[in-house]
Amino acid sequence: MRNKYVLIYQEMVQKIEKETFKANEFLPSENELAEQYQTSRETIRKALNLLAQNGYIQKIRGKGSTVIERNKFDFPVSGLVSFKELADKMGEKPITAVHQCAKVSANDFIQKQLKLKDNQEVWEIIRTRSFSEQRIILDKDYLITKTVPYISKDIAETSIYNYLENELGLIISFAKKEIIVEEPTAEDRELLDLEGFHNIVVIKNYVYLDDATLFQYTESRHRPDKFRFVDFARREH
Fold first, then answer.
1. Phi first, then psi: what are they for 62, rounded to 5°?
2. Which NCBIfam families match (predicted)?
3. In terms of residue numbers, what domain contains 55?
């Protein structure tokens, strides 16, 4: 016989999927659930922990547990596409806000990522992407000014890749990617809507031209509840 908390978890999953418990609404309190299921708060806690681990709810300290929106955007891992190209395939129109678009001296970290010498300048472009009035992606782009001598806020608001390829004539060829999960930084907390979220998914892109020149480093920082990172793999024989 299954543990009671597993049975409670399964029943609550059904209620979430049938929208008895609706997305973005709070569940009843632990005390209310314990009374409803005629069990202890410890058993309810175990069921709620299982719901949180499997992406159904988000526990918010001091407030309770809110149901997470289960509709996620498929984000291709292996492809090299711009956000605009990805957004055009989505049913929901995102909003891009440009917080920074300026030439800056590359700090030690960016120098290392782009293999630059001391005091070299890069374009620093910081943008947030919002869906349903929630800021859920923070994009931080660094482009070598030797390759990209000019860029503007207007370009950053629409599509950088469209500008690079169709205006500057650059041939963007491939990228090396890293995906990590880490705790949000103070900047993440300031620029994204992260209340109740304790992790963020970071995709690091090292982007190269067709002559194998590294010209761009990007960190795309995603709130974890809205994206499903997908790939297609074929076994070689």
1. 85, -5
2. trehalos_R_Bsub
3. 4-67
